[in-house]
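Late entry, evening session. Most of the bench is empty. Finally got around to the prediction I had been postponing all week. Sequence below, unchanged from the version circulated by S.P.
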Amino acid sequence: MKNLKNRLFRVKRFLSQLVIILSILGIITFSLFIFEESIQIATFGTWPAQDTGDWMLVLKGLDTISSINKAMKAVNYSVGWLQPFAFFSYRAFGKATDYYVESLKRKVFANSPECFLGRKVEFVFIPKRIEKEGIRVKLINGRICVLTSSIPDTQKIIVSGIIERKGNLLIVKADSIKPVRK
């Protein structure tokens, strides 16, 4: 009888510890789930904004998605590993979200580059005109002008820099120009 009580006590203690562990894992997984749902709701919000051509609102949605995704990744990488299946799932979701944000930012830039005034951008650029102005070179296509110190080796380039406005022209002071190679 004493042996049976001892076993029951051990089983109860084990089960109570298991409940605590499962509760902690559930809190972690549920928190990650709420992050995921928040990202999805913000993503859904970018769709009608795109349909109406409200590119500033799309960019606001992308900023919201990025900040939620950053917080989700912080939680996942700090405690998510306690629940390995959830960790790998939410890591994949975070990567997919990064891709969505990057691709939609490019769509916003293609439709309304002025939305990025004061922001650092990276984009593929094909200049239609090249003008030398002292030690500077202006690469111009439409209303975008890339300022650089030299003429690029290839026609198609990847430009990185901060966008500014000068009249109707959007100026990118290039901090990096790389050739696009096939």
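Two things to note before I forget:
The first helix runs from residue 2 to 51.
Strands lie at 120-125, 129-133, 136-141, 144-148, 157-166, 169-179.
Will write this up properly tomorrow.
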